[in-house]
Amino acid sequence: QICLSLVKLLFYLAHSPLGSIVLLDFQPRQFVMVDGDLKVTDMDDASTEELSCKEDNDCTLDFPTKSFPLKCSVGGKCEGINEKKNLFNAYRYFFTYLLPHSAPQALRPLLSDILNATGDLRYGINETLRAFEKVLHLYKSGLYLQKRPLLLKDYISLKGFRTVEGEDYKCWPSYSHLGCLLSIHSPEEAAAICNSHSQCQSFIVTQQRTWTGRSLASFQSSWTDLIPDTNAIVYIKRSASSGERL
């Protein structure tokens, strides 16, 4: 969410009515999330000036660990230097820390492509935004899910119930530090996740949604202490419930 919002912001800056705007003091502390959107808190160090040049050798974009040769335009300006400077700063301050860690396994190669392409400045802001929107579409639609055996049949579902909240086993990346709370596209995906966790015996799906509209599911190491909840469904492994009375 943070990276996509940042890319949308940089897309606007690259195509603003004033021309391509560069953020000269590009640091994470200069941004804040407001209602799910990333905004710049300080525009004092923004500029529409693009570096003047006489030849291509005048247009090297230097960073502490990398340098990029750019073209000198017929008008005597380094082509796209403001856009590229913003994009590489987004790569080194945001993408490298946030992109590789929390996506479903099937989407990680696509995010790795974005990471590599922006790190080498092979993508401009237009290509980067399209790549992010493709990943978001796959994530929201569930099209990233590979065909696999149907596992939900191995679970008993109880509508209108959930387990008592409390600390349980933890997983990564969890929305809660007290247990294992993950976003899912469907109960079938949740069943696959539960099967992949050795501790998991049940999971609860509620009407809570993430910013992408996906449901939140809480994965549990037990299924005892059920309490009524009209907005929840608890799914219990048949193997865990064998010999017990529900």
From TrEMBL:
Pfam families registered for this protein in UniProt: PIP49_C
Domain FAM69 protein-kinase: residue ranges: 2-116
Classification via InterPro entries: FAM69_kinase_dom (IPR022049), PKDCC (IPR042983)
BP-aspect Gene Ontology terms: skeletal system development
Keywords from the named record: Kinase, Signal, Transferase
Domain of life of the source: Eukaryota
GO CC terms in record: extracellular region
GO molecular function: non-membrane spanning protein tyrosine kinase activity
Keyword flag Kinase: yes
Signal peptide (from-to): 1-19
The protein's name in its UniProt record: PKDCC kinase
Provenance organism: Grantiella picta
